[in-house]
Write a structure and sequence with these properties.
- There is one protein chain.
- With about 325 residues, the protein is an alpha+beta fold.
- Helices cover about 30% and strands about 30% of the residues.
- The protein has eight helices and 19 strands.
- It has a ten-stranded mixed sheet with strand order 1-2-3-6-7-10-15-16-17-19. A three-stranded antiparallel sheet has the order 8-9-18, with no helix packed on it.
- Helix 1 packs antiparallel against helix 6, helix 3 runs parallel beside helix 7 and helix 7 packs across helix 8.
- The longest helix is centred in the first third of the chain and has 19 residues.
- It starts with a strand and ends with a strand.
- The chain binds adenosine-5'-diphosphate and magnesium ion (MG).
């Protein structure tokens, strides 16, 4: 799609559905149309490799006892995932998939599994039992992988790379809430990204606004893709230690960094950790910023966002 108006650079935009979510890639200027189409193609190709449901995907083969030589992208993503799993002490764990299946999160029939089923499936979970060797991934019997918590961030990095290769200096990529901002808006201002308020108290249901350039912004929370049984709401982010959906003092976690893959995996991991452990992780590790929204309504942000995040509410600094 191509639109143009006087004095402003040409805009190109593609809206599509991939990786189980709605995606938008919007770019401005020369080469924008080519870049946008290439970005869409890259996301669709990644989905073909990584989908847990597509019988022709590499991950499907891996999850069904086969051991194919992996494509560079799949190998890369497995390596990155296992690395982040180690750094987050398993709060992010790409091997949690058997548990996700037991809860029915992959189907329309979500339900609370028997506790015995969870206990026995936990034996099939654990990043430390998975390894890469040559071009292959080695799993123990019954183990399965899922990149639902990181693939959109990885795809956003690929899109950003494509924009840069094409010389695009202004673009905004939104892969189902995994945002990547390239350069500035065509009017020269920073890109402004609304941070959702899952409790719905904020202005227009926003907890605040982030003004950014050349970085990813990724939010995780259990308020999406959840279900309610006997009055209890269960979310799709699983605590790999318990096999139950993470349920702590956090409502949502937003991670901001140039590395979209890291943002995606970390937003999932910090959500599993809960407020205190997430704050500790932020103090002990650098290279990214966060906005933590607690269930009691309090907002906590790292220092790097002090002049980038604006909110009508009181914001505490993590330092
Ligand atoms: P969203 O997909 O809504 O953007 P996340 O990035 O937080 O949210 O990813 C959640 C998805 O990641 C789940 O749907 C599931 O496929 C997978 N997942 C759930 N729990 C974990 C976990 N602890 N570590 C890694 N992946 C997880
Ligand atoms: Mg994630």
């Amino acid at each position: 799609m191509l639109t143009s108006c006087a004095n402003s650079p040409t805009k190109s935009q593609e809206n599509f559905f991939a990786m189980d979510t709605y995606m938008t890639v919007e770019a401005y200027g020369e080469n924008a149309e080519k870049a946008v189409l290439e970005a869409k193609e890259a996301v669709v190709n990644l989905e073909k490799l990584l989908s847990v449901n597509d019988e022709n995907s590499e991950i499907y083969a891996v999850n069904h006892g086969k051991s194919p030589d992996l494509s560079e992208e799949t190998f890369d993503l497995i390596t990155l995932s296992l690395d982040i799993a180690e750094k987050t002490h398993g709060a992010f764990d790409p091997t949690v998939y058997p548990i996700t299946v037991a809860w029915g999160f992959t189907t329309d029939e979500k339900h609370v599994p028997e506790s015995g089923e969870i206990v026995s499936l936990l034996e099939k979970v654990g990043y430390e039992k998975a390894a890469v060797s040559g071009k292959k991934v080695v799993l123990q019997e019954g183990m399965k992988l899922d990149f639902g918590g990181i693939a959109k961030g990885y795809a956003s990095d690929k899109c950003a790379e494509i924009m840069r290769e094409n010389g695009v200096e202004s673009a905004i990529i939104n892969l189902g809430g995994n945002v990547y901002a390239i350069g500035k808006r065509p009017d020269g201002n920073l890109w402004r990204i609304g941070v959702a308020d899952p409790s719905g108290e904020g202005v227009e249901d926003r907890a605040g606004l982030l003004s950014v350039s050349d970085c990813a912004v990724v939010t995780s929370g259990n308020y999406q893709r959840s279900f309610t049984q006997n009055g209890i709401t269960y979310g799709h982010i699983i605590d790999p230690k318990t096999g139950y959906p993470a349920d702590n003092d956090l409502l949502s976690v937003t991670v901001v960094a140039a590395d979209g893959t890291l943002c995606d995996a970390l937003s999932t991991a910090l959500f599993v950790m809960g407020l205190e452990e997430a704050e500790k992780f932020c103090r002990e590790n650098g290279g990214f910023d966060v906005i933590l929204i607690a269930k009691d309504g309090e907002i906590y942000v790292t220092e790097g966002l002090s002049d980038k995040f604006t909110s009508e509410r009181t914001v505490h600094t993590i330092s």
